[in-house]
């Protein structure tokens, strides 16, 4: 009897899901805690870079002291950017990060262009590159005397992407547990490097710190060193892509930033001090992976742990990028800028399965491309341009919507300073390599005709593509999925806005 009842209920559920979008919608639960939020920020910022390429800063300064100062200033500036995004993320509590903010500030076309380049290039190439880095270092202990076969590396990268996609489809909590565990693992690895460096400085000579300010101080060299430092802090805005699933975002978003950013900045500075203490300047400039040179000298027979540390670090990075990418595409579908099936979530697990699978497939396609690293070079400047546009949107909203509820309101000087720095990061490399910026702009602007043909014109016709309807219906039935109730959080935002207005009116009357 129970089995028949269960089967009947399942049949009814599938039938209800198979109906048009008139059926019941899913209200997303806020499952991301403060600790999870810290894990997302720390886990996506700390990737392979701090293990492999601190040379990127030192090669331009040739100065130990200047390098440490630039690492510190890069962390401070990234924190300023994260605080500006905290204001945006608490007054526009939509998942999607830059896309959501540009959509509100400058309208649907600008928002769509940000989504277009993320969908086409940035997200899949970033995930593919980080997965490839994971695979290269995961297999390194098995190929100590020779290079690992490229096909084996790419296959392992694909397995990594598929495994993490499956975890993210099954459970948001599982995905967050993986993020937390691997964030702790990479922090443990970095702390072990710091402790080894402290031990070396306490027991050996400090010859490498002699004449710490001797180096290259040309303005262009310092600017490029600063660019490399800021690049290593990429990922500080990733929590803003999942604010709709963050518990109490008005409090936990800024708290996560204040916990994560000083932590990462301090770790980066102390790790670089450890590198400089152990690895000479000549070795630093000649080394492909500084952490490997450090490990060979300090860890001896267990130096093979360094590649494992890098693999753990990048594995957690893939998970964070995958998790936030699916939420970005889901938000774009809710706004009508992507096919509706991107916004479907599992009825019980509340995970965006179609968006996750699409993200995985596009990343695997990028693994097959020999030009995957070239593609990401075209968009590094465009990515900073979108950050600059989001900060400009913050300033514009201050003017155009002065009464907009702002639980966090940063000093006006912070977004202005950060905006100037972002524009410098966009324009500076263009003096020597203008082609990258031009190609990135061309591919981004190719989304303009796509927007008018596929979004504006199709919405005016009020018709649905038959193929998209079949895919949508198939995803609903196959994945037991339904659409998200976007109005639930809008109601919460309106209530908050009314409360803020009431408080302001009372304060004015008094």
From TrEMBL:
Listed InterPro entries: AA/rel_permease1, AminoAcid_Transporter
Chief localisation class: membrane
Molecular function per GO: L-amino acid transmembrane transporter activity
Membrane topology, as annotated: Multi-pass membrane protein
Keyword tags: Cell membrane, Membrane, Transmembrane, Transmembrane helix, Transport
Any one of the GO CC terms: plasma membrane
Cell compartment(s), UniProt: Cell membrane
Residue ranges of the TM segments: 34-56, 68-88, 100-122, 151-170, 182-202, 222-243, 255-278, 298-322, 355-376, 382-400, 412-431, 437-457
Source species, domain of life: Eukaryota
Name of one Pfam family that matches: AA_permease_2
Xref: Gene3D superfamilies: Amino acid/polyamine transporter I (1.20.1740.10)
Family assignment from sequence similarity: Belongs to the amino acid-polyamine-organocation (APC) superfamily. L-type amino acid transporter (LAT) (TC 2.A.3.8) family.
Protein name per UniProt: Amino acid permease/ SLC12A domain-containing protein
């Amino acid at each position: 009897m129970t089995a028949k009842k269960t089967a009947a209920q399942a049949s009814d559920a599938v039938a209800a899901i198979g109906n048009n979008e008139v059926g019941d919608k899913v209200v997303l639960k806020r499952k991301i805690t403060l600790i999870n939020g810290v894990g997302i920020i720390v886990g996506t910022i700390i990737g392979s870079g701090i293990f492999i390429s601190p040379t990127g800063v030192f090669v331009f300064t040739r100065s130990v002291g200047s390098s440490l100062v630039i690492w510190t200033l890069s962390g401070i500036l990234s924190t300023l950017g994260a605080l500006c995004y905290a204001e945006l993320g608490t007054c526009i509590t939509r998942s999607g990060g830059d896309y959501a903010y540009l959509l509100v500030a400058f309208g649907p076309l600008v928002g769509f262009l940000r989504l277009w380049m993320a969908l086409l290039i940035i997200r899949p190439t970033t995930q593919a590159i980080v997965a490839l880095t994971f695979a290269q270092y995961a297999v390194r202990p098995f190929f100590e005397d020779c290079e690992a076969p490229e096909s084996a590396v790419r296959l392992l990268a694909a397995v990594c992407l598929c495994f993490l996609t499956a975890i993210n489809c099954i459970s948001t909590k599982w995905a967050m547990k993986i993020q937390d565990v691997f964030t702790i693992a990479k922090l443990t690895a970095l702390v072990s490097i710091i402790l080894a460096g402290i031990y070396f400085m306490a027991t050996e000579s400090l010859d490498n710190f002699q004449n710490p300010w001797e180096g290259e101080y040309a303005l262009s060299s310092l600017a490029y060193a600063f660019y490399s430092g800021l690049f290593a802090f990429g990922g500080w805005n990733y929590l803003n892509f999942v604010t709709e699933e963050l518990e109490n975002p008005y409090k936990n978003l800024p708290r996560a930033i204040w916990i994560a950013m000083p932590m990462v900045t301090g770790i980066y500075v102390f790790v670089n001090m450890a590198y400089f203490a152990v690895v000479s300047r000549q070795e630093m400039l000649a080394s492909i992976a500084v952490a490997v040179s450090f490990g060979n000298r300090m860890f001896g027979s267990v130096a093979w742990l360094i590649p494992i540390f890098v693999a753990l670090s990048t594995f957690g990075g893939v998970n964070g990028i995958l998790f936030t990418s699916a939420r970005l595409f889901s938000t774009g579908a809710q706004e009508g800028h992507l096919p509706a099936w991107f916004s479907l979530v599992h009825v019980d697990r509340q995970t965006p399965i179609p968006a996750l699978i699409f993200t995985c497939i596009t990343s695997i396609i990028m693994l097959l491309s020999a030009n995957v690293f070239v593609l990401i070079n075209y968009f590094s400047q465009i990515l900073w341009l979108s950050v600059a546009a989001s900060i400009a949107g913050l300033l514009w909203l201050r003017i155009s919507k002065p009464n907009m509820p702002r639980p966090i309101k940063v000093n006006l000087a912070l977004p202005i300073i950060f905006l100037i720095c972002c524009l410098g990061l966009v324009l500076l490399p263009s003096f020597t390599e203008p082609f990258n910026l031009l190609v990135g702009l061309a591919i981004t602007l190719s989304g303009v005709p796509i927007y008018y043909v596929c979004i504006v014109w199709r919405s005016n016709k009020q018709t649905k593509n038959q193929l998209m309807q079949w895919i949508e219906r198939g995803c609903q039935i196959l994945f037991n999925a339904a659409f998200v109730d976007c109005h639930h959080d809008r109601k919460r935002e309106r209530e908050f806005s009314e409360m803020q207005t009431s408080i302001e009116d009372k304060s004015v009357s008094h």
